[in-house]
Design brief:
- The chain folds into 3 domains: 50 residues, Ribosomal Protein S4 Delta 41, Chain A, domain 1; 62 residues, Ribosomal Protein S4 Delta 41, Chain A, domain 1, CATH 1.10.1050; 88 residues, RNA-binding S4 domain (Structural Genomics Hypothetical 15.5 Kd Protein In mrcA-pckA Intergenic Region, Chain A, Roll), CATH 3.10.290.
- A 5-stranded antiparallel sheet has the order 2-1-3-5-4, with helices on one face.
- By secondary structure, the chain is of the alpha+beta class.
- 36% of the residues lie in helices and 8% in strands.
- It has 8 helices and 5 strands, in the order H-H-H-H-H-H-E-E-E-H-E-E-H.
């Protein structure tokens, strides 16, 4: 299974915003963006400020969204094509499709402290959808789907050590029962329900060039 191998902290430094890829560390003083020496982009010339072109602004916004959800370039492009073909506003469709990824739902439900951890939990077979095991992080959930931790996985160390719910609010399109480690999709996410800080219209403009 292909995955992103760049240092997660360098990804945040490249986009100059917190992408929250390391769970609790992102909220602590250990976060690279809170340290003066690490606030610039990685690389020898990372501390040089330069004005971005229109294309550069669009590219950075696309890369930011792709890195937030941990999606590789080809998969992201394919998701954009699906969003473009669906009814409605392309940018909002794109965000909704990214939100409906199973690894993101596991993270949103609080079963993981970060999306990379959620991706690992799904890939290792700890999650079921409607009672059946699903180990594909990119699996798209639908309304009335039930996402749960497998019964024989509930005693795993990373579930016992504390879930990630405390650091974020539950989205309006999901409900969760933390006692039983199960959640449900009660609606499709709309733009108002998605707190991802991204200008999706710039991504649409990037692919429309």
């Amino acid at each position: 299974m292909a995955r992103m191998t760049d240092s997660v902290c360098s990804q945040c430094r490249r986009e100059r915003v917190k992408l929250y890829l390391k769970g609790d560390r992102c909220y602590s003083s250990k976060c690279a963006l809170t340290r003066r020496s690490k606030r610039y982009a990685p690389g020898v010339h990372g501390d040089r400020q330069k004005k971005l072109s229109e294309y550069g602004v669009q590219l950075r916004e696309k890369q930011k969204l792709r890195r937030i959800y941990g999606v590789l370039e080809t998969q992201f492009s394919n998701t954009f094509v699906k969003a473009e073909r669906a009814k409605g506003i392309t940018g909002e469709n794109l965000l909704a499709l990214m939100e409906r990824r199973l690894d993101n739902v596991v993270y949103r439900l609080g079963f993981a402290k970060s999306r990379p951890q959620a991706r690992q939990i799904v890939a290792h077979g700890h999650i079921t959808v409607n009672g059946g095991k699903v180990d594909i992080p990119s699996y798209t959930v639908n309304v009335n789907d039930t996402v749960s931790v497998k019964p024989n996985s509930k005693d795993a160390k990373f579930f016992k050590e504390g879930l990630g719910l405390s650091s974020k609010a539950m989205p309006q399109w999901l409900t969760v029962d933390l006692d039983n480690l199960t959640g449900s999709v009660i609606a499709l996410p709309t733009r108002e329900m998605i707190d991802t800080d991204v200008k999706e219209h710039l991504i649409v403009e990037f692919y429309s060039r």
